[in-house]
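Support request, please re-run this one:
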Amino acid sequence: MIDPRIITDQASRTNLTPSVIWALGQQANAFKGDDSFAHEIAARQYATSLSALVTQHGSVEKALSVLHSGDPNAHESPTSPTAGYVAGVLGLAGSQAS
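Re-run finished. Output below.
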């Protein structure tokens, strides 16, 4: 498991909750069996980008949509892969304590 200090550090640098940063790591886990590596990548690379996108687009949902597809409204179509990505990240974030 990733060192919680990495998640806490990134949360303090951004306007994101630790649970969202953790969830990004879960979604980024392309390296099966190495959760720490995926979480560290997400915490360090995605958190800062997502924070800026939240500021620019006004919501975590739209920011995740841009991060995944480039379109802030792509998550609004229930059949789009982006909607699944956004729902997945937010669902994982909701399962974690902030």
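The CA atoms of residues 50 and 66 lie 9 Å apart. Residues 35-57 form the longest helix (23 residues).
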